[in-house]
């Protein structure tokens, strides 16, 4: 076993942490017993996840943290065969399944599980340093932490509080998601990060409660961000800074936009000739190849230096570059004419009566595929029909891009990662 090392200065050790009904600080979080290393710590609450992070920051333990629900038995066996002891952390009780393989630990290594949206989750290696992408001194804030422990977005919020002064945390457990605005208002949350689905669900459930949260910073990420949700949040919070971030476990936080517009400026794209510039540069290099976003990032995961094909499809609209969805699922071929599911989705969600939409291909005679959609209506604006939406889309899309089957759902679907299946 290699020598352990403290991985970072805990500047935020005295920041307030609200978790599990208790208000503590990073310093006074309940302590985990000395962890084996490497350790995969599986938790069912945010307090245990944060305790594992602080243990790592102090001792340098090679760590993977995730919820028990995201790691099934076969994955636990896979972790054990990869040299991880599997620690089940539950309040004051902890069980340890020793690793099935003895190997040298990578002191200071943090492992993240990808979202698994395109298949089985995989492990991506980082360090606290590579996960800490907000390094400029921040104004005092209290952050909402609604993300599933161990995801990249969760680490982004956690590292702000761990490495910056005056950055408190209010942890929201899955059972509290429906009423998080009440919790946030009670604890004076001024900054919140969530997926577009997370924000849509909150607006759909209780816009009035959301408006009472004193938000100064609103961040969106994890899914394609459309203009409709940015505009709706601006209506509710006219004084807040609204940002969207493109980030992933593989390339880290690579695009940050604060101008209130969907997409990013086309001028941010770099040509291939700039890919080999100074590797110490803090600015990611963005490029597009065959409609795919390609990123060279200083915040990349282990072994992913250089240009990384993200698998995300983009479209150019005027002087903006829009990220519309996954390359392998965004394009729908209707009788030889191709349309972006993301573009159709954005058109649907631009309708004032639509709270959420998903667009996908469906088998059809003659043309092979047609465009279909699932929609959640905005209850505040009265009933809408599929004919209303077909007419709306017909005025904004080519005929082959208009959804021909529309199903209305009663609520917005959301996964543990706060994403919907779009």
From TrEMBL:
Domain AMP-dependent synthetase/ligase span(s) in chain numbering: 59-257
Organism domain of life: Bacteria
Residues of the AMP-binding enzyme C-terminal domain: 346-417
Similarity section: Belongs to the ATP-dependent AMP-binding enzyme family.
Protein name: Acyl-CoA synthetase (AMP-forming)/AMP-acid ligase II
Organism lineage: Bacteria, Bacillati, Actinomycetota, Actinomycetes, Propionibacteriales
């Amino acid at each position: 076993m290699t020598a352990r090392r403290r991985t970072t200065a805990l500047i935020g050790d005295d920041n307030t942490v609200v978790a599990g009904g208790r208000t503590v600080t990073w310093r006074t979080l309940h302590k985990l017993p000395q962890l084996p290393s490497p350790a995969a710590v599986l938790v069912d609450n945010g307090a245990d996840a944060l305790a594992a992070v602080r243990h790592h920051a102090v001792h340098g333990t090679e760590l993977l943290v995730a919820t028990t629900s995201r790691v099934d038995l076969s994955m636990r066996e896979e972790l054990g065969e990869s040299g991880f002891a599997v620690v089940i952390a539950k309040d004051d009780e902890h069980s340890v399944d020793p690793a099935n393989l003895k190997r040298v630990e990578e002191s200071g290594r943090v492992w993240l599980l990808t979202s698994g949206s395109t298949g089985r989750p995989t492990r991506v290696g980082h360090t606290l340093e590579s996960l800490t992408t907000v390094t400029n001194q921040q104004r005092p804030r209290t952050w909402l932490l609604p993300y599933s422990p161990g995801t990249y977005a969760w680490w982004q919020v956690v590292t702000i509080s761990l490495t910056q002064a005056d950055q408190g945390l209010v942890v929201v457990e899955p059972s509290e998601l429906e009423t998080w605005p009440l919790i946030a208002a009670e604890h004076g949350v001024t900054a919140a990060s969530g997926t577009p689905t997370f924000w849509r669900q909150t607006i759909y459930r209780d816009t009035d409660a959301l408006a009472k949260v004193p938000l100064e910073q609103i961040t969106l990420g994890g899914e394609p961000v459309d203009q409709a949700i940015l505009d709706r949040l601006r209506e509710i919070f006219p004084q807040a800074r609204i940002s969207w971030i493109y980030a992933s476990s593989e390339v880290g936080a690579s695009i940050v936009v604060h101008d209130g517009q969907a997409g990013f400026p086309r001028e941010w794209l770099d040509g291939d000739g700039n890919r080999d510039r100074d590797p110490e540069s803090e600015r990611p290099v963005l490029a597009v190849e065959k409609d795919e976003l390609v990123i060279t990032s200083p915040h990349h995961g282990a072994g992913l230096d250089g240009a990384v094909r993200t698998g995300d499809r983009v479209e150019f609209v005027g002087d903006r570059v829009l990220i519309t969805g996954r390359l392998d699922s965004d394009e729908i071929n209707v009788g030889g004419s191709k349309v972006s599911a993301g573009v159709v989705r954005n058109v649907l969600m631009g309708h004032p009566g639509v709270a959420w939409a998903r667009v996908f291909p469906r088998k059809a005679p003659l043309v092979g595929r047609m465009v279909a959609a699932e929609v959640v209506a905005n209850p505040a604006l009265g009933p809408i029909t599929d004919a209303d939406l077909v007419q709306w889309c017909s005025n904004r899309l080519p005929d082959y891009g208009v959804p021909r089957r529309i199903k209305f759902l009663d609520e917005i679907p959301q996964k543990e990662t706060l994403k919907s299946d779009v």
